[in-house]
């Protein structure tokens, strides 16, 4: 448990340290963006869209898009994924390696209870820093005389946190199904790298998991163009948040099934 | 309702093509202490894990206090405490925290036994378990297993990594539990120690229990096999043949008649030392395995 909290604090500190410079240096960055045509020369379509959004004439809108890019698209995706994988890899595979899984499974406690008792602290450690660090962006923004919309930032953070939870649950499933931590890390790591590769390839980008958490999704949320119901409604809106919640439910069910069948 | 604490009938367990337990029949009465003996890979740990519901059986019937581990494992684990063969303790925890955690799963504990065990084992409970020796880890795992006040104790090699003093103490503790009416099933490699403790011994060989008559015959046969060390240059006295030569030069012999008589009649200058009538587990396994087709109890080969 102590180790989990240490990872949690380190993860939150990294998120915060990544956030502070991109927030406080915004005035200089914005001025440079006004002068530079760098974004327009890059041939990658989504980077061009980001460039247009963060260098627009309305500085408040440009700043919100900048925060959507840097806080949610960049920091949360990378750091949250890394933290979720780091925590999830050892949840059960390490118990097996240390011979404590047999001890644990032989106690008079149900396997569903073991799964939940091991998962909820990990979920808290992955999810809470996303909200805390993104909330801290509001007072930091005041220091450069700009405002961030609380509600929209909360919605974006919620989506990022659910993505982190899905990554943790996927890794937990692998941690139960595979017997060795190194194998879990290799399989989950390869999956994430593959998904990033798909995302970077324009023609097949819509099929990447990271399409659910990219700038095209976070930008409109933070600018107030995607209301909450559209986040959750996959029929009349994009409903990406519902997809992630469904992924969480599926990975939780798979983890429970794998643990129910697990032998020492 | 079965009158047995443990009732196993026609139990089969396969891991893929590997047949680990074969038509196994085993009954243990309430309050009985049963010693399960067998070489590595005989299926002892698989049997114990099947009883506690950690490993699903392939076929057959298993009941503990009338409860089926396939469907009522949780209720069984409330009534049975299990010590795994591989010591599984949380290395990063302090000894006292580990015990609180492990015992917290059980509603009733024998606090007097806890105090006795901790005093006898002299465990440094304020230190992290990662600093413990292998024997100390086994001792704390034993405390976590024996202190819960349950009806059945399933112990997979409880004396593993223990020194002689701790092994003797453990024997007394198990006797004490038996006196209180607890049922105990323990597997071990120490034949003589288990024999002095157990009400009954069962030999598990290649996944099946060996019939008692066959074990008895093998042990009688073993008593006719003296272990002899000859003086340098002296030939083997007549009336015996070498069954096996051990790396330390000791010869395991098969005598034509009574081993004691053979020794009495042998040239005293030829024999440096001799040992007769000692059951060595390894010898017993070897003898039982000598048959091509083990006539295991209720077993299919």
Blueprint of the fold:
The complex is a heterodimer of chains A (264) and B (301).
Chain A: H1 2-24, H2 26-35, H3 38-41, H4 45-54, H5 59-97, H6 100-105, H7 111-142, H8 150-177, H9 181-200, H10 215-222, H11 228-232, H12 240-261
Chain B: E1 6-15, E2 18-28, E3 33-37, H1 44-52, E4 59-64, H2 73-79, E5 80-83, H3 95-103, H4 111-121, H5 134-146, E6 152-156, H6 164-179, E7 183-188, H7 191-197, E8 200-205, E9 208-209, H8 212-223, E10 227-230, E11 240-245, E12 251-255, H9 259-265, E13 271-275, H10 281-290
Parallel strand pairs in B: 3-7, 3-8, 5-6, 6-7
Antiparallel strand pairs in B: 1-2, 1-4, 8-9, 10-12, 10-13, 11-12
Word description of this protein:
The complex is a heterodimer of chains A (264) and B (301). Chain A is mainly α and 264 residues long. Chain A has one domain. Chain A is built from 12 helices and no strands. Chain A has helices spanning 2-24, 26-35, 38-41, 45-54, 59-97, 100-105, 111-142, 150-177, 181-200, 215-222, 228-232, 240-261. In chain A, helix 1 runs antiparallel to helix 5 (59-97) and helix 5 packs across helix 10. Chain A is elongated, with a radius of gyration of 20 Å. Chain A starts with a helix and ends with a helix. In chain B, the strands form 3 sheets. A 6-stranded mixed sheet of chain B has the order 5-6-7-3-8-9, sandwiched between helices. Chain B has 10 helices and 13 strands. In chain B, helix 4 (111-121) runs antiparallel to helix 5 and helix 8 crosses helix 10 (281-290). Chain B has helices at residues 44-52, 73-79, 95-103, 111-121, 134-146, 164-179, 191-197, 212-223, 259-265, 281-290; strands at residues 6-15, 18-28, 33-37, 59-64, 80-83, 152-156, 183-188, 200-205, 208-209, 227-230, 240-245, 251-255, 271-275. Chain B has 301 residues and is α/β, with parallel strands linked by helices. Chain B is 34% helix and 25% strand. The longest helix of chain B is centred in the middle third of the chain and has 16 residues, at 164-179. Chain B has 2 domains: 6-209, P-loop containing nucleotide triphosphate hydrolases (Rossmann fold, 3-Layer(aba) Sandwich); 224-276, no CATH class. Classes of the chains: A mainly alpha (264), B alpha/beta (301). Chains A and B meet through helix 6 of A and helix 2 of B.
């Amino acid at each position: 448990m102590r180790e989990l909290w240490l990872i949690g604090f380190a993860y939150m500190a990294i998120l915060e340290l990544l956030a502070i410079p991109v927030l406080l240096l915004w005035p200089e960055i914005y001025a440079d963006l006004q002068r530079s045509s760098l974004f327009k020369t890059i041939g990658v379509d989504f980077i061009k869209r980001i460039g247009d959004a963060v260098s627009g004439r309305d500085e408040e809108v440009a700043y919100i898009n900048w925060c959507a890019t840097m806080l949610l698209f960049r920091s949360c995706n990378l750091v949250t994924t890394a933290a979720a994988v780091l925590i999830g890899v050892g949840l059960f595979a390490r118990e097996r390696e240390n011979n404590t899984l047999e001890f644990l499974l032989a106690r008079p406690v149900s396997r569903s209870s073991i799964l939940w008792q091991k998962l909820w602290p990990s979920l808290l450690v992955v999810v809470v820093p996303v909200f805390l660090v993104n909330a801290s962006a509001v007072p930091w923004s005041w220091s450069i005389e700009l405002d961030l919309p609380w509600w929209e930032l909360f919605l974006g953070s919620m989506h990022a946190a659910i993505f982190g939870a899905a990554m943790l649950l996927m890794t937990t499933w692998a941690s139960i199904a595979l017997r060795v931590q190194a194998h879990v890390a290799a399989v989950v790591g390869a999956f994430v790298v593959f998904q990033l590769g798909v995302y970077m390839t324009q023609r097949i980008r819509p099929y990447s998991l990271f399409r659910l958490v990219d700038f095209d999704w976070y930008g409109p949320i933070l600018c107030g163009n995607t209301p909450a119901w559209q986040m959750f409604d996959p029929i009349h809106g994009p409903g990406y948040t519902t997809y992630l919640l469904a992924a969480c439910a599926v990975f939780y069910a798979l983890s429970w099934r794998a643990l129910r069948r697990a032998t020492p | 309702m079965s009158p047995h604490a443990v009732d196993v009938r026609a139990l089969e367990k396969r891991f893929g093509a590997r047949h680990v337990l074969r038509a196994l029949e085993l009954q243990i009465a309430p309050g009985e202490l049963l010693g399960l003996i067998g070489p590595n890979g005989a299926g002892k740990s698989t049997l114990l894990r099947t009883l506690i519901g950690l490993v699903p059986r392939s076929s057959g019937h298993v009941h503990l206090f009338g409860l089926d581990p396939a469907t009522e494992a949780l209720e069984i684990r409330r009534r049975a405490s299990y010590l795994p063969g591989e010591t599984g303790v949380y290395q990063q925890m302090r000894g006292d925290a580990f015990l609180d955690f492990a015992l917290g799963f059980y509603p009733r504990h024998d606090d007097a036994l806890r105090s006795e065990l901790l005093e006898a084992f002299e465990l440094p409970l304020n230190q992290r378990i990662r600093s413990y020796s292998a024997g100390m880890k086994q001792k704390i795992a034993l405390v976590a297993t024996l202190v819960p006040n349950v009806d059945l104790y399933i112990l997979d090699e409880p004396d593993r990594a223990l020194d002689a003093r701790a092994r003797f103490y453990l024997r007394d503790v198990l006797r004490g539990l038996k006196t209180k009416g607890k049922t105990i099933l323990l597997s071990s490699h120490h034949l003589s120690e288990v024999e002095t403790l157990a009400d009954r011994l069962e030999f598990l060989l290649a996944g099946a229990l060996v019939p008692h008559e066959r074990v008895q015959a093998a042990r009688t046969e073993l008593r006719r096999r003296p272990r002899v060390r000859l003086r340098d240059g002296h030939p083997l006295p007549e009336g015996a043949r070498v069954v096996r030569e051990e790396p330390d030069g000791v010869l395991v012999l098969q005598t034509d008649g009574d081993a004691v008589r053979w020794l009495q009649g042998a040239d005293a200058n030829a024999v440096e030392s001799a040992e007769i009538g000692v059951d060595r587990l390894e010898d017993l396994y070897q003898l039982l395995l000598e048959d091509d087709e083990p006539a295991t109890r209720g077993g299919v080969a």
